[in-house]
Every structure is written in C-alpha cells, then in structure tokens.
Design goal:
This protein has about 425 residues and is an alpha+beta fold. It folds into four domains: about 5-65; about 75-180, Arc Repressor Mutant, subunit A, CATH 1.10.10; about 205-270; about 285-410. Helix content is about 40%, strand content about 15%. The protein contains 14 helices and 15 strands. The strands form five sheets. It has a four-stranded antiparallel sheet with strand order 9-10-12-11. A three-stranded antiparallel sheet has the order 1-3-2. Helix 1 (about 5-20) crosses helix 2 (about 30-40), helix 4 (about 85-95) crosses helix 6 (about 130-145) and helix 11 packs across helix 14.
C-alpha cells in the first residue's frame, strides 16, 4: 500500500479508532489490525503523544494506547460492576497475576486465599463464605477473562459461588495482566487529589501549562459525547475558539471525526456508523424514545399553554412531571413500535431510564428537587415514525442543524 494514499489514510484512522476504543489489540486475536498499527506506529505514537499526552505501547504480541480521561465520567467504568468491591477485587486479581508466568496454571481457591491473606495484612477482611463477596469475585474474574488476561481451562465460577466456595476452577494466565494498569510518572502515594491521576508531568511554565491545557481539551473532545462551552474554563474556551481550525483538522485527519461550531459549543460526530465505538443514537429502543422526545419537546415549546422554557444557555427546562407526561403521550402514540419492555414498564421507571440515558450522552441534566433540563445538543436531533413506511423511521442527521432536515434509516426496533 502506498504511503499517504487514500487507503493508507483510511487504515490509519481505523487503527486510531481501535486503539481508542479497545483495551488493546493483540496479534493473536486480530493479526491484520495489529500489523497495520505497526505500519503506522510512528505517526500514531507522535500524534497521540503530542495532542493527548497518551503513550502508545507496541510489543511483539499486542498494541495498547494508555488512555487517560480528561474528566472521569460514571459511564467510563465497567458496566457489569455494581459495587466498589468489584473494582478492588479486579485490581487484586491483577496483583495476583503479576506473580504468574505466561501460560502458568493455577486454581481459583489458590487465588482467592492469596488475595484474602494479602488484604488481612492491610486490615481488610474478605469473607468467602458470604455470597456477595463471592459474586463480586466472579464479576472481577469474568472481566479479566473478557480482556484476555486469564483463561478458564476447567470449571465454572458460578458453581464456586453456588457451592459456597467448595467447587474449583482451573485457570491459565497470560502476559497481558501486567500491562493493564498504566504507568504513572511518580509514586501513587504522592498523589493527593483524584484529578492528579489524569495529569502527566507538566513544567510549571507558560509552555508547560499550555501543553497541559491542550492535552485536557483533546482528551475531552475525543472521549466524551459532547462538551459545551460553559464546561470550559475561560482559558480553555479561549483555546477552543482560537484553535478551532486546528482542532477540526486534526480530529478529522486522525480519527475521521467531523466537527461544527454551534451556539452551545464545538460538537463532533462520526458521519457513519462504526463497530469500534458506541454512538448515539444506539440500537436500543430508549434511543428512539430520546429522538421522539427531542422533536416533541421542540413542538410543545412553541405552544401558548406550555410550561417549557429555554434559559440563556439554551437549555430547555421542565419538571419531572412534565417529562413523564411527555413520555406517556409518546408511548400512547408510538407504543406499537417499541419493545415489549418499554410498552409495559411503569411510566416512572421509563422516565428514569430515559433521563439516565440522556444524561449519559450529555443530552440532559437535573438540579435540586424535580428540576430537569434538556441540553441544547438534543435539539440537533428529531425523530418520528412514518405511518406509510413502517419499515423506516426518520431521524435528523447531526450534520444538519435544521429541525426538519431528516434522513431515513432502516427500522431497527
């Protein structure tokens, strides 16, 4: 393939997207992509280091981009973990595996007893006779397996849970475990604030602080669905406004992101669906309901008896009761298109699910009491079902800001 040809640039963007959205790319699981990353290594390494402060590791067996969030968000964690204990056991599982060689086999009971004894030395007690503790350990083990850090050779973790710890599982370790936790520039015990964990070593000079600001802005723009102007500090907003052309060009060339300047901020999107990342709208019915809500809220805003209003930041304010009423009306009109779950669920639960979905994507927020608001970026979307074309739905493309400019896509519900 000729260097800098159109195909070369497409392949480079595919590599960058994979590195951003996967824990790592292994030679064994995806040899073609791994070879492509090695071919583009220098350009990928230099770009991520210069613009994001990320380190690209490439060994004989895998490639990993050591990513750091600009601002940590709840959805950045493991979705299957529902207790802090799960994360702790995941980390201590990595600690245990550091002492194992590649392909070395061990038993689950060996692992859990070593973790328990290690924690007892720190004054923390784990009780494997407790069902919740065993279940947390299994959630951590399953995540370790999904990441390819260890492999179950024989046995089932859930049998260990159900049997009260009497059953066993045989595992085999891989060398990936020692590369999960990223390298920190100094000893962890010297950090005093969570925010420091996301920072590198920046010189206490104007140039060093400018580099820190640049990395922070790029990280947020490529890792979060939307960042509004009001979320930047005055210095950061000045950078976004004055470096807009460079931001647009860099993210387009390396990641295939298209961006536009709107009143609420500089917004980026992928013009086509891709399997490397989660995009809004998702394939879930709750995203379809969010699109319907966007159009319905805009229509009601112009009605004389509407309680909805827009503040100076472009946010559409409403109460939880208002939102629930909108959702009920939408369900009455469109329930035949919805999944059985949302046709039958209680209105309060449906509203809560919808609000959580919108907040996760930066499209809604809530204040004290029952105060809610829909973010201005949600107004860039609208959805409705075509009665005469039931196999299609209409959704607004994020590439247009006109409410009525919609593009049909296949029905997925």
């Amino acid at each position: 393939m000729e260097k800098n040809s159109p195909r070369w640039e497409i392949e480079k963007r595919e590599c960058a997207q994979a590195l951003l959205n996967r824990p790592w790319v292994t030679k064994e699981a995806d040899p073609d992509l791994f070879r492509a990353i090695r071919s583009h290594y220098e350009e990928l390494r230099d770009w991520f280091r210069e613009h994001c402060g990320f380190t690209l590791l490439v060994t004989r067996h895998f490639a990993k981009l050591e990513k750091v969030p600009g601002r940590a968000q709840p959805w950045m964690g493991f979705s299957e973990f529902n207790d802090p204990r799960d994360y702790a056991l995941f980390t201590y599982g990595l600690w245990f595996l550091e002492g194992k060689g590649e392909g070395e086999q061990f038993l689950l009971t060996e692992m859990v007893m070593a973790i328990r004894e290690h924690l007892l030395g720190s004054g923390v007690e784990l009780d494997w006779t407790l069902y919740d503790h065993r279940l947390s350990m299994v959630r951590a083990l399953k995540r370790l397996q999904e990441m390819g850090i260890l492999q179950a050779v024989d046995g089932d973790e859930m049998e260990w849970v159900r049997s009260g710890g009497d059953q066993n599982v045989l595992y085999e370790s891989s060398p990936l475990g020692r590369y999960v936790l990223r390298q920190f520039p100094r000893d962890l015990t010297t950090y005093t604030r969570m925010e420091e964990l996301g920072e590198g070593l920046y010189a206490d000079t104007p140039e060093g602080q400018l580099l820190r600001r640049k990395h922070y802005i790029y990280r947020r723009l490529i890792q979060e669905p939307v960042v509004y102007d009001r979320e930047w500090s005055p210095e950061e907003l000045h950078y976004v406004l004055t470096q807009r052309r460079s931001l647009l060009e860099q993210l387009a060339n390396m990641l295939g992101l298209e961006g536009r300047r709107y009143r609420e901020g500089l917004l980026f999107f992928y013009p086509e669906a891709t399997g490397e990342m989660q995009l809004f709208p998702t394939a879930r019915t709750i995203s379809d309901i969010a699109l319907l809500l966007a159009g319905e809220a805009r229509r009601r805003l112009g009605q004389e008896n509407s309680n909805l209003y827009v503040d100076e930041q472009g946010r559409l304010h409403l109460t939880r009761a208002d939102l629930e009423g909108l959702v009920l009306d939408l369900r009455e009109r469109y329930k035949d298109y919805w999944s059985q779950q949302y046709r039958r669920t209680r209105s309060g639960e449906l509203t809560a699910d919808l609000l959580a979905h919108l907040e996760e994507w930066g499209l809604a927020g809530h204040g004290p009491g029952d105060e809610l608001w829909l973010e201005p970026a949600l107004a860039r979307w609208s959805g409705n079902y075509e009665e005469d074309l039931q196999a299609e739905r209409q959704v607004c493309s994020p590439r247009t800001s006109e409410p009525g400019d919609c593009t049909p896509v296949p029905e997925q519900m």
